[in-house]
Amino acid sequence: MAAQSFLSESLLGWSIFTFILLVILAFCWVYIRKFQSRQESEVVSTITAICALAIALITSALLPVDIFLVSFMKYPNGTYKEWAANNETRGQIEDTVLYGYYTLYSFILFCVFLWIPFVYFYYEERDDDNVNKCSVRMHLYSSTHSAVTCLDAVAFVPLEAPPGQNSTQWEKVQYLFEELGSSHGLPALSFSISSLTLIGMLAVITYTAYGMSVLPLNLIKGTRSVVYERLENTEDIDDVEHQIEKLKSKCNDGRPLSSRDRHNLQELEGKLQVLRRKGRHLEIAERNCCTKVGSALRPFKILLGIFFILVALLFTVALFISNLDKALHSAGISSGFIIFGTNLTNPLNELLLALQPVFPLDYILITVITMYFVVTSMAGIRNMGIWFFWIRLYKIRPKKTRPQALLFLCMILLLIVLHTSYMIYSLAPQYVMYGSQKYLVQMPSAGPTSGNATLGTTRICDAEAPEDQCTVTRSYLFLHKFWFFSTIYYFGNWAFIGAFLIGLVVSCCRGKKSVIEGEVEADDSDLSDDEYVH
């Protein structure tokens, strides 16, 4: 009966996982197609972007399965279930999850270090007519080979002394394969993923923290009135046309314009072209039924914005409590600020622990949290653009995003979603580490007649629990294999809180967005309007 119960619930879990997988693939396809430029669409970059984003989201979807399996091994009273009483059975289940992480994390490394850079440089070099195919291939190879070489040199260094100098080359090669095939592969892969997660932490601090503030406030504030924008745009057009006529009147007597006047005339004509294009877009927006539906759904948007800002504040409070708990009760920097149990009440951690016994609920909640991070990250990237320090590389606009920008976007989102594993651990450390596991503690019975009798009591699993009584999730092992990464993540959480508060102030000070935000830019061509007109 126990085995049948485990099998049925496992099938239920994998059925839900398969359904979420299909939802993720559909979401990725819609997501990329929404922002992809219709004029510069490229099949290879589109498929690469969809696959990379899907892999990242699927990796995050594996976390609740990991937590569920370690929790499902035990009864609420702290004893192992019959099918999990054997260490070999538990090891097989843990290995299955571990292989899932190995596979997905290997795909992430492949995308970040090889496939996405290859497609990016291929698209960059493809349009150059003066470069032959051989030189393009050599440039692609040199551009991607260096990243893979650095990864191999740092991450997959053998952890034990190699054979002596007198050994043959075959013995050295055999030793290297044995090292990679042994348990040392876990630290190597964990180091690689931790390095990528460190980059993802910077992206989370930059984009996600700002997106968590700008998205709900934009929903609450709404957009400007399209009628008022058209009236204002018409006045601007009249003003620019008057200035152009005034400049042209200077050459009515046959005298040429000065270089300064010619420069001003050129700027005014470019501005007039942008204003007229903006007027056409505003006219389309005024007739568009989506604009009218959006106005009718205005109360719902306000409620959704209030909900999002409350969720953002809940995350910030939970993260602050978690970091404060680490600062007060951890062993310090040398231990990576790892805490032994939860000493302060964390609201999100308690909520997940309460929902965990009913498997779909915590799975849905963590999936929603992950999607919330993705949506807010996209809001931050769309409002800020893709930057390299102080240099803006690309803008993200609906139906006008270049293929290179989409590849950058998906790589950033892939790294952000990768860092969400640690973010979720910071928000709910007890849940991510042990789930709802409990263990039995034998306490001496009180009373004069009790003698040597003992009384079994249950405790929630923490770092002080016996090793054979609590099973740690595989995700936690990946996150905390190296203490110095945990230390950096700890300080990164403080930076995230500060960035969120700064973004909240900036978002509050900004006015309403235009109803055609991002549709018209000075560097657009008139042909780009065709995709909106048709």
Give a structural overview.
Belongs to the LIMR family. LMBRD1 subfamily. InterPro entries: LMBD1_LysCbl_Transport, LMBR1-like_membr_prot. The chain is mainly alpha-helical. It is built from 17 helices and four strands. It has a two-stranded antiparallel ribbon with strand order 1-2. It is elongated, with a radius of gyration of 29 Å. The N and C termini lie far apart (62 Å). The C terminus is likely disordered.
How are the SSEs ordered, and which strands pair?
Elements: H1 2-35, H2 43-72, H3 87-126, H4 133-155, H5 169-181, H6 185-221, H7 226-248, H8 259-287, H9 289-296, H10 298-329, H11 347-355, H12 359-384, E1 386-388, E2 391-394, H13 403-427, H14 429-434, E3 438-444, E4 454-460, H15 474-479, H16 483-509, H17 530-533
Antiparallel strand pairs: 1-2, 3-4
Helix pairs in contact: 1-2, 2-3, 2-12, 2-13, 3-4, 3-6, 3-13, 6-10, 6-12, 6-13, 6-16, 7-8, 10-16, 12-13
Transmembrane segments: 12-32, 44-73, 104-123, 188-210, 302-320, 327-344, 364-393, 405-425, 482-506
Pfam families: LMBR1 (PF04791)
Protein name: Lysosomal cobalamin transport escort protein LMBD1
Features:
534 residues; mainly alpha; two-stranded antiparallel sheet; 17 helices; 4 strands; 4% strand; LMBD1_LysCbl_Transport
Q: Report the sheet-strand fraction.
A: under 5%
Number of helices: 17
Structural class: mainly alpha
Per DSSP E runs of 2 or more residues, the count of β-strands stands at: 4
Shape: elongated
Tell me about the biggest sheet?
2 strands, antiparallel
The proportion of residues forming helix, as a percent range, comes to: 55-70%
Q: Which oligomerization state do the chains in this entry correspond to?
A: single chain
Low-pLDDT segments: 136-141, 152-161, 525-534
User: What is the arithmetic mean of pLDDT?
Assistant: 75
Distance between the termini: 62 Å
Strand arrangement within the widest β-sheet reads 1-2
Question: What Rg do the Cα atoms give?
Answer: 29 Å
